Amino acid sequence: MRPGDRWLISLPALLLLGACGQAPRTAEKAKEPPKPPEPVSAQWAFHQMYVYARSWAPDATPLRLASIELEQVPCQAGKCGAWEAVFVSPRLGRARRLTYSVLEAEGNLHKGVFAGLEESWTGPRGQAEPFPVSAFKVDATAAYETAMKKGADYAKKNPDMPITYLLEKTKRFPNPAWRVIWGRSIATSSYSIFVDASTGEYLATAR
Fold first, then answer.
1. Using an 8 Å Cβ cutoff, are 157 and 138 in contact?
2. What is the pTM of this model?
3. Which of 12, 63, 119, 126 is the most buried (most CB within 10 A)?
4. In Å, how far are 60, 98, 103, 129 from 115, measured between CA atoms?
């Protein structure tokens, strides 16, 4: 047997010994479970919807923004699991309702931005009127803080009452205003506070 043949015969054994000497690979870390959905701020949800609205109509202008209470993701200090906005297009003469939700839920709510059907629009039909996006500077989180300070006594007496948020521009105030509502709607509420959505100043209390 030639010397080179001995080396070839011993090669598999050397490879086997080397493999045995290697440290075993560490097991891959188990994937972390997905985090439960969390409420989002009004401005963040509004921006997602506004991007879509501008793709629908370049002159799309907000008419209103309101929170939607979700049982799975309740509102917390100005952040909510779902928001609804209405945009209008004077050029098209149309209005469109958009929603943003952190999950699929009842009431035709879908995760992310979802666009409803278009409706005709020839101008304001009620008190609310379109407002420029640049006037929307104060988030619902800040409006909540102001409302809790001004309505501290009422909030203390009603700690478990849900709070609803509505952003509109009416002739009552020069800028669009947040209405922080104790209750699920204006019709069923006996207490709410208005906060300027451009400056963050307290405006009025409705009882």
1. no
2. 0.82
3. 63
4. 13, 5, 15, 21
